[in-house]
Amino acid sequence: MPNYLIEIPHSGDIPECQQVIKLFVESGSHLLTNAHWGCKDGIHKAWFISDFENKEQALQTVPGYLRRKASIIELVKFDKGDIAKFAKAEK
């Protein structure tokens, strides 16, 4: 199953940070337990990594209000062979 990074930005406004966290708590999103938040360091984003069937399924786990701002990125690991093939193809 593909692995996806979900990134959800929000403003640095403290009430908005609290609102975003509240939305996840109230939605019962299983992603909340795996969330990484940058707010404490001034980067107002939340990141989640999880397995999903596709990007649409990943997006559906994000509370509705936040979906339009969310980025869904499929993550792939390459081995040395993959990287060597890629490097040769670019020439």
Strand order of the largest sheet: 2-3-1-4
Helical residues, percent: 25-40%
Average pLDDT rating: 87
Question: Radius of gyration from the CA trace?
Answer: 16 Å
Major sheet: 4 strands, antiparallel
Number of helices: 3
Alpha-beta classification:
alpha+beta
How would you summarize the topology of this molecule?
Blueprint: E1 3-9, H1 14-27, E2 36-37, E3 45-51, H2 55-60, E4 71-75, H3 80-89
Antiparallel strand pairs: 1-3, 1-4, 2-3
How would you characterize this protein structure?
- By secondary structure, this protein is α+β, with helices and mostly antiparallel strands.
- Helices cover about 35% and strands about 25% of the residues.
- It has three helices and four strands.
- The chain has a four-stranded antiparallel β-sheet with strand order 2-3-1-4.
- The chain is elongated, with a radius of gyration of 16 Å.
- The chain starts with a strand and ends with a helix.
Key traits:
single chain; alpha+beta; 4 strands; 23% strand
Short description:
Helices cover 33% and strands 23% of the residues. It has 91 residues and is an alpha+beta fold.
